[in-house]
Amino acid sequence: MQLTRRHLIITGAVSAAALAAPAVLRAEEKLTVTISHGAPTYQALIAELSSQFALENPSMAVKFVADGDNWDPLLNSTLRASVVGALPDGTWQSLTYARILANRKIAQPVNQFIGNDIKNLQAMGLSKPMIEATTVGSNVYCLPYGTTIPIVYCNMDLLRKAGYSKPQPPSTWDEIHQIGVKVAAMRGNINGGYIEYSSTNAWIFQNLLASYGGRMMNEAQTAIAFDGGEGLQSLQTLFRFGDIGTTDMTIDQARQAFNAGVTAMHIRSASGTTSVAKATAGSFDLAVAQFPLPGPNGRLVGAGHGFFMFAKDPAKQKVVWEFMKFATSSKGQLILAKNTGYIPTNLMALDDRAFLDQYFKINPFHRSVVERLAITGDQFSFPSDSTVKIVQMMANEMRNVVTHKAKPNEALTRMVAQTRKMLG
């Protein structure tokens, strides 16, 4: 009787182990990849992205690992990790680093997954300018996830007080200058307008230049290209802000001034719409306008980010690729919209009425912003270790222009000479 009972106990234990085995195996078979990021403030987005991806791909998982508190620190961490062989399987990084990551053989091209044809990425909804921003040579190294472009934030109450009568906000530089001068004439501590000329990587100058049809360097990146008429027009536009801004401020001071209701127009990234709307709610009538495009071939320069593949193992590459596709799908793009002020990059999603209804409910001020994505590429970085010094020099020259300490042609001459010198 005891033998029989023991036999039953052993048999039961074996049966229980056998029943448990498939679950254990399934857990072991779930291939997990690591993705580094420099956005610790976006924990909700990261959590939702990884959990939703796992729901749709039961055999795969993504683990996000913080490796910096912004894009630049993340890049530096990535470069250090590449030296000691400690790279993650992928990364969520600024698009402007594509060339650095490609040239250093850190990022892996995704051509094999798109049949070596960017038309297949366009078929997924990604615009050609955004794809080109992640292309080095003939290889594509990243799938753009989100971006932002400059827009004009307007305090419609101040504009009306100065005599502006149109229902929509100003749409051209001439209109912005004309009404800005009238607001500035109201005296007190009121500013007609502010443009974030000192933003990182000379981003505003890049957008002004592109809006007039110009570019920073030629396509081969062997010579600068902002030394012509488009570059001069860009600085002339900045010069006019000296007529409407009563005080030169830092970016943080200027943002606080606009939120406090003492600046009529503020030009900054569209990614700030959520925070600005929250800060100004109930204080004044907020409106946003598109960044003017005066040139017939004008375009915009985004500040995009996306996912790069580092893994060399085919199995892990497959998981990273599937995640990249998910992030740029409608579901992944809506997660971005829900948790940040960034603009989705998938044009097909933005053409879908159901997606748009949800998106604009979250970010109502983006209605006019998304119209510009088709002509939006990404910011430029000089192919030199002196990039930071160059853009800082440009910011200093732009400050001289905005504060009327230098004329546009004088500043451009210095910018051209110093850039050439630092590029060698």
From TrEMBL:
Keywords: Periplasm, Signal. It holds the Pfam family SBP_bac_1. It is found in: Periplasm. InterPro entries: Bact_solute-bd_prot1, SBP, TAT_signal. Residues 1-20 form the signal peptide. The keyword Isomerase does not apply. The keyword Signal applies. Belongs to the bacterial solute-binding protein 1 family. This is Extracellular solute-binding protein. It comes from Mesorhizobium australafricanum.
